[in-house]
Design brief:
The chain has 524 residues and is α/β, with parallel strands linked by helices. The chain contains 15 helices and 16 strands. The strands form 4 sheets. It has a 9-stranded mixed sheet with strand order 1-2-3-5-4-6-7-10-11, with helices on both faces. Strands 12-13-14 form a 3-stranded antiparallel sheet, with no helix packed on it. The termini are far apart.
Length: 524
Amino acid sequence: MAPTTLALIATLMAASPAGAVDPTGSPWLAIDDAACVGLKLKDFAVDVGAPVTVTTASVIAAGADGRAPDLPAHCRLTATIAPQNQVEIRLPVGGWSGRVLTVGCGGLCGSIQMERTDDALIRGYAVAHTDMGHSAADMSFADDPALLDDFVHRATHLATVLLKSAAGSYYGRAPTHSYFRGCSTGGRQGLTAMLMHPDDYDGIIAGAPAAGPGAVPNIAWTLKSNMRADGSPILDAGALDVLHAGVMAACDGDDGAQDGLLANPDDCTFDPRAIVCGPGGPENECLTPAQANAAAAIYDGVAAQGRRAVSRGFARGGEMGWKAGLLGVNGGPPGYAGVARNYLRRFPGAAADLAAFDFTAHPIALAAVDTLPSAGDGGERLRTFRDAGGKLLFMHAWSDNSLTPATAIDVYNDHAKTMGGHAALDGFYRLFVVPGVWHCGGGEGPDAVDTLAAIEAWVEKGQAPERLMAFKTKQRLPYPREYRFPIPDDQVVLSRPVFPWPVSARYTGRGDVARAESWEKSSP
C-alpha cells in the first residue's frame, strides 16, 4: 500500500461510488476500496504523456462478474487517453504477482474485450485492454491520422504505460515484469511493440499476426480464387469435404500416425488435380477442374502482377476451417468478405467488387498497419529489443483459416535474414507452429497452450522454450479461448509437444497417439 493511501482513506470512503465493495465487513476491504477510488485523484498524464480521464475506479468483489464468476476481487479502473483511446485496467486486490499484462485485440478492435484477460487476472496479473482508439465497425477511422496512429501502435503503448502507473500507485511498488499477449490483430500489436517500443515489455506472446504481405491481401486472394464471375463459390461445402479427404488420404501418415492431423503440412505434396473427376466420376468423390484449380491457388497463396507475395497460402489439412470464410454461416455472407472490402479500399478507381478485381493488374497494396516498422533498418530495432532483455514467443497454427501460416513464417525468416541467420534469433525470438488448429484456436488440433508459463520461465528464469505442450480439451472454449491452466487430466483429449519451427513432432510408433510422450522431435 502506498504511504499516502492511508491518509486519504477517510476522505475517499465518502466518495466511494455505487457498486463498489461494501467495506463494512472487513477493514482491509475498506482500505483496498479506498486505494482503488483514490486512483481517480492521480494525474496520470504526467506518466502517460497525454491527457487521461479516469471515469470509474472501484473494487469488484470476487465472483461478482456473472460472465466469469471465477474472477478474484479486483480494482477496476476505466479511463480515456486523449484523443479517444478507451482503456480498462484490473488490479487484483490480493495476491498480486508483481506482473502486468497488456492483452491485444482481434479484428479491427473498437471495443474493450476484458474476457481476453480473465485467465491472467486469476493468476495474479494486473491486466489492461484497449479498444485501440476507435469504435468504428470498418476501416473508416483510418482516414484520421491520429486514430490511425493509435491503431498502429500508440494506443497499445500508452495503455501499457497507464497500467504500469496505476499498478505502481495502487500497490505502492513498481511492477517486477511487464508482458504482452495477443493473437491476430493482437499478434501484430505484439510485433509492432517489440519494434517500436522495445522497453515496454520483458516478454511478448505474439500469435498469428495480421501483418505483412501474407495477411489481408491473402484473405482477399483466397476469396477471389474461389469466386466465379457472378460471385458464386467454386468450392462448395461438399467439394471442401472431398478436398480434405483427399489430403488426409495422401498425407495423414507422413508424421508416422494416422490421427487426422498433419504435424508438418509442408511435407505434404498433395496436388488437388489428382482427384479431378474422370468420365462419369461421382461428384461427391472428386473435384471438377475448376475446383482443383481454385484449391491449388489457395494453397499457393497470394500473387499479384506475376509475383508471389508469400511462401505459402493456406496449408493442406486445414480445409474444414475454410467453410465459414469462403461460404458463410447460416446463409450469411462469406467471412472473408469484410476483409476483402477493406482491401479494395486501397485501390481507388479499381473495381468495386472482388469478382471483377484483377490481381494480375495490381501490386500488393499494404495498409500502414500491415507493414512492420523493421523493414530496411538492418536489424537495429530487433537488436534494441534483444539488448533490453526482451523475449518474443511467436506462435501460429498450421490450419489457420484466416491468416496463412506464411504470415508468421515469412516474418520470422525475414528477421532471421536481417540478423544473420536463425541462430541469431534463437536466444530471444522463437517461432512455434501448432498442428490442426484454426485461427487463434479451434479446429481439430490442440489449441490450449500455456504461453504465460512459457514466457515467464524464459524471462524470469532464463529457461528458453525447447518445446511447448499443446492440449485439446473436452470443453472447447468459445473465442478468444483463454484456458485456465493447469488443465485437469480428465479434461484432456489430446496432448502434443510443439517444437521450435522448422522442427516438428513425429510419432515414435509406440504408445497412444493422443499422448505427448508418444511423440518426439523430427528433423525438418
